[in-house]
Amino acid sequence: MKQILVTGGCGFIGSNFIRYELSEYPGVSITNLDKLTYAGNLENLKEFESDSRYNFVRGDIADHDFVNSLLSSTHFDAVVNFAAESHVDRSILDSGPFIQTNIVGTQVLLDAFRKHNINRFIQVSTDEVYGSLGAEGFFTEETPIAPNSPYSASKAAADLLVRSYVKTFQLPAIITRCSNNYGPYQFPEKLIPLFISNAMEDKPVPVYGEGTNVRDWIHVLDHCRGIDATLRKGAIGEVYNFGGNSEMQNIKITKLLLGLLGKPETLIKYVTDRPGHDLRYAIDCRKAKLELGWEPEIEFQSGLEGTIKWYQDNQEWVNRIRSGDYLKFYDQQYGNR
Ligand code: NAD
């Protein structure tokens, strides 16, 4: 694995993954293909701008000609596909971009991949494709796909396309499905960074319904280690689940965050529940342990404390997102090239 194409590397998990790979493997070079939607922030990887092992290319994974010309001009050993529309609430407002990027984009990548001599395709997917659990049980890799939001349906469709390309064309692809991530560089529209940044400014934190929905939280670095293990040790055609063994009701995590920030619970504002809101996600990741030697290492409370500290130390990063200034970074860096 010397030349890796990472798509969506300017987003939350992709940027953490690129940082992880470049730090862990001095011999690895990464091309980051990102469309720079509202969720893509070049500033997430500012420290690699002058690193010869890192190359940024702006483009759309759903653009057939662009993707094919990139794969023709550079040999890649692997593709790791993070690029996606990723916010459930936005998919409820307008599912169009989710179909286009998450499904069509994956199909374009898969077709381009077929034509070139690439060893691995890793499709980064989500536990949300399994739908919702009741109070008991866990998602395993054998759990039937039953998505409930346009976002998770688009990710499930992409997973099924990947599966079909493995079966039909023997494409060397692997799917990962992970639970809710938290950590540095997460766009402040998702629960943990939104609540941290709102609470830091004494603004209300909006909790859906009664806050009883349960999510399993995993630190983004544990997820990145899992994707890395999949890339290097995963078996073709398999699915691997990753989770943090940290199930928690939304209201509990909200109160924990406010407590750690020293803010009052009066900041909690209960809002109308999300339509089709999945009750509970919980992950069985024994397969990843058995076959990849992977386990989550970051304990939830210490990971959360580290994340809060990161947002406190990087208020300028949040401010530039909230003001929209981060969108100008591309022109500043690449405008004259
Ligand atoms: P994100 O929204 O932070 O980042 C997505 C990135 O993809 C952005 O940089 C964006 O500019 C880029 N992008 C969007 N459309 C594109 C296109 N057409 N072409 C090229 N680039 C495009 O997302 P994230 O939270 O980092 O999630 C990354 C992946 O991991 C997604 O596929 C998501 O489904 C999956 N996932 C996320 C979580 C989570 O908790 N965040 C959990 C499990 C799986």
Could you list some keywords that capture this structure?
Rossmann fold; alpha/beta; 337 residues; 17% strand; binds nicotinamide-adenine-dinucleotide; 7-stranded parallel sheet; globular; 3-stranded mixed sheet
Percentage of residues in DSSP E strands: 15-25%
Structural class comes to alpha/beta
- The helix count comes to 12
Strand order of the largest sheet: 3-2-1-4-5-6-10
Stretches where pLDDT is under 50 for at least 5 consecutive residues are: none
Q: What is the first-to-last residue Cα distance? A: 29 Å
CATH topology of one domain: Rossmann fold
The coarse silhouette is: globular
* Radius of gyration, taken over Cα atoms and rounded to an integer in Å: 19 Å
Largest sheet: 7 strands, parallel
CATH architecture type of one domain: 3-Layer(aba) Sandwich
Tell me, rounded to a whole number, the average pLDDT: 95
Q: Quickly name the level 1 CATH class of one domain.
A: Alpha Beta
Instruction: Assign a percent range to the helix content.
Output: 40-55%
Distinct small molecules: nicotinamide-adenine-dinucleotide
Q: How many individual β-strands? A: 12
Order of helices and strands: EHEEHEHHEHEEHEEHEEHEHHHH
The fourth-level CATH homologous superfamily of one domain is: NAD(P)-binding Rossmann-like Domain
